[in-house]
Write a structure and sequence with these properties.
One of its GO terms (biological process) is methylation. The structure is a single chain. The chain starts with 14 loop residues before the first strand and ends in an 8-residue tail after the last helix. The longest helix has 11 residues, at 156-166. The strands form five sheets. A three-stranded antiparallel sheet has the order 3-9-8, with no helix packed on it. It has a three-stranded antiparallel sheet with strand order 4-6-5, with no helix packed on it. Strands 1-2 form a two-stranded antiparallel ribbon. With 174 residues, it is mostly beta strands. 9% of the residues lie in helices and 21% in strands.
Length: 174
C-alpha cells in the first residue's frame, strides 16, 4: 500500500517523503548524506502481488512482483540513478536498496526503472532531465543492451531476459 500524506510515518532512517501536489510529483528525499555503495535499506515487509505501478519486479516470471509497503515506493525514476534496488539474490532476505553514487542530504533518490522492470504496467514520458535521458520509459524489454549497460546497475534477472531476447549469454552484472 502506498502511504499518503495524511497517514505518513517515515519507514526508513535517513529518508523522508517530500509530498508535492499533483500525480507522481512526491519524492523520497535523503535527510542525511550517503556514500557510494552504501546500504540504504533492507527490503522487508514485501508482499507478492500483480504487476502494478507501485510494484517492483523481482524475477523473470510474469507474476514475480512485490509491493514495497513502505515509503520506498516514492523513489522516482531517473535515467541517471543514484540508488538501485538489488533483487538479484535468490534469497529475498538479501534484497536491498543501495547507493550508486554519493547522495547529499536534501537530495531525492532516483532509480532506473528498467533495472527491475521488463515490461512496465504504466509506461511514461520521462522528465528526469538527465543528459542520458531515454525520453520514454517502458521497461528493459524495449532497450538495447548498450542502453542498459550505460546505467550503473541492472538486476541479473533482467539481464537473463535480455539474453533470452537477444539469444546470447550476458554477465550477471554489467
Amino acid at each position: 500500500m502506498k502511504p499518503s500524506q495524511e497517514n505518513y510515518t517515515p519507514s526508513h532512517q535517513g529518508l523522508i517523503v517530500k509530498f508535492q501536489p499533483g500525480d507522481f510529483r512526491s519524492a523520497l528525499v535523503a535527510t542525511r548524506s550517503f556514500g557510494p555503495g552504501e546500504l540504504v535499506a533492507r527490503l522487508e515487509g514485501l508482499t507478492r502481488g500483480p504487476k502494478r505501478y507501485t510494484s517492483v519486479q523481482c524475477g523473470t516470471g510474469a507474476k514475480d512482483h512485490v509491493e514495497l509497503n513502505s515509503d520506498l515506493v516514492f523513489i522516482n525514476h531517473s535515467c541517471d540513478p543514484n540508488v538501485a534496488f538489488d533483487l538479484s539474490s535468490r534469497d529475498p532476505n538479501n534484497w536491498h536498496l543501495r547507493t550508486l553514487k554519493p547522495i547529499k542530504a536534501g537530495k531525492p533518490l532516483g532509480f532506473f526503472y528498467p533495472s527491475t522492470e521488463w515490461d512496465m504496467d504504466q509506461p511514461f514520458k520521462c522528465e528526469c532531465g538527465a543528459k542520458s535521458c531515454l525520453g520514454s520509459i517502458q521497461g528493459a524489454k524495449y532497450l538495447s543492451l548498450k542502453q542498459l549497460a550505460a546505467r550503473d546497475f541492472v538486476n541479473s534477472y533482467i539481464l537473463e531476459l535480455v539474453s533470452e531476447r537477444d539469444g546470447s549469454r550476458l554477465q550477471a552484472r554489467l
